[in-house]
Amino acid sequence: MKKILIIGVGAQGSTIAKRMNDEPNVSEIICADYDDKAAKELENTLEKARALQLDASKLENVIEAAQGVDLIVNGLPLEFGPNLIEAALTVKANYQDMAAFQYPDKEWVEGIKYMLTEVSEKFKAAGLTALMSTGSAPGLANVITKEAVSGLDSCENIWVCVYEGLWSKRFIPFWWSPQVAFNDMEDEAYCYENGEIVETRPFSRPMMVKYRGIENEIRMVEHAHDEPVTMGLLADQELKGAKNIYFKYGGGGIEFSEPLSKMGLLSREEIEVKGKKVAPMDIILKLAPPAPKYPDEIKAIIEEGLEKDEGAFLIRVEGVKDGKKVRIDSYVGAPSLEEAFEKSGLTHETYLTGQSASLFTKMFVNDKIKKKGMFPAEVFDAEERAYYLKEAAKLDITVDMYEESRFA
């Protein structure tokens, strides 16, 4: 029986808690959050949940909360990552997070290298597993990428493409945290190109993509994401020597944010306005409406009507198979906004990301992850991938693969 500590029980953390409450191998779920109300709500509704108010900015608090747990799940903003990693190693617990964080004294890419080497060795020496970047993208995307690439003799190109085309009549720029969204929009992006990690500008390098089932081509651009970095660092070992790896993002969030960025309104640097210092990003975050999360709110949005409801989640790989150049397109299928709400009272975004993350937690509690150390999901072997994708299909998260020869 496993004891889990989930730190940060917002949209994703609470989804994981609810899923783990149904797992026979879980004895207790400690739901920790600075917001005691959020934690108490889970304690009051889940049989195995126990609420804990926690200030995770202090390492000693996390260590105390984690005594005796088998797994720490990090559902907090990225800046809390180093504390939770240190706590996991101190109490000898496994670890899971949703995205690669940045160490205060290291550049982001260098921090990921550090986690995949020195931090990984610490977990390995302790006989522990630390799984990084577990959600839909990154996370599910990494599992699918490895699955597609595994059928090739060699790999040349990988694209992870996410298009979000859902617009409601109510103004909702993002269906997840605006703070996370706007920060991602302004952060430097990276690709893996010609065997090297290359820093790019957000909104740069536009390309038009034609998705199955969507009438028009969609403009896709560079966007800060984990996949090109972790996949690039592991390309030779895990992805058949892939030379070029990109994450491309398109849709309403990009259309809304790009002009704001070009005007400097997403800058974190203070400017003077009528004699007062202010960071433009702070104004945007103050004014941006929060993502809908309460059932009554989501229901009202659906009843008001949607102006546009389409999207695509595509992983495209190109390489050589049996002497021929081939392209494999893997499309993720998942519940729409209305379907997700009917199933679980969640938005489509929260459903896909939270349920995808919960499946990695499920693998932990059922001892389905064999490797020790710290790594992302592209390291999974065939048996681990098969388990993950089979369990995902039970939640109506499916993958359709289309293979075609590029040249005779």
Keywords:
408 residues; alpha/beta; 7-stranded parallel β-sheet; 7-stranded mixed β-sheet; globular
In summary, what is this structure?
By secondary structure, the chain is α/β, with parallel strands linked by helices.
Structure characterization notes:
It is a single chain. The protein has 408 residues and is α/β, with parallel strands linked by helices. The protein folds into two domains: 2-97, NAD(P)-binding Rossmann-like Domain (Rossmann fold), CATH 3.40.50.720; 140-346 and 386-405, Dihydrodipicolinate Reductase, domain 2, CATH 3.30.360.10. It is built from 15 helices and 18 strands. It has helices at residues 11-20, 36-45, 59-65, 81-91, 108-125, 140-149, 178-186, 227-233, 235-238, 252-262, 280-287, 295-304, 337-344, 348-365, 382-394; strands spanning 2-7, 26-33, 49-53, 71-74, 94-97, 129-131, 154-168, 189-193, 196-200, 207-209, 218-222, 244-251, 271-273, 276-278, 306-321, 324-333, 373-375, 398-405. The strands form four sheets. The protein has a seven-stranded parallel sheet with strand order 3-2-1-4-5-6-17, with helices on both faces. Helix 1 packs across helix 14, helix 3 packs across helix 4 (81-91) and helix 14 crosses helix 15 (382-394). The model has no long low-confidence stretch (mean pLDDT 95).
Question: How are the elements arranged and paired?
Answer:
Blueprint: E1 2-7, H1 11-20, E2 26-33, H2 36-45, E3 49-53, H3 59-65, E4 71-74, H4 81-91, E5 94-97, H5 108-125, E6 129-131, H6 140-149, E7 154-168, H7 178-186, E8 189-193, E9 196-200, E10 207-209, E11 218-222, H8 227-233, H9 235-238, E12 244-251, H10 252-262, E13 271-273, E14 276-278, H11 280-287, H12 295-304, E15 306-321, E16 324-333, H13 337-344, H14 348-365, E17 373-375, H15 382-394, E18 398-405
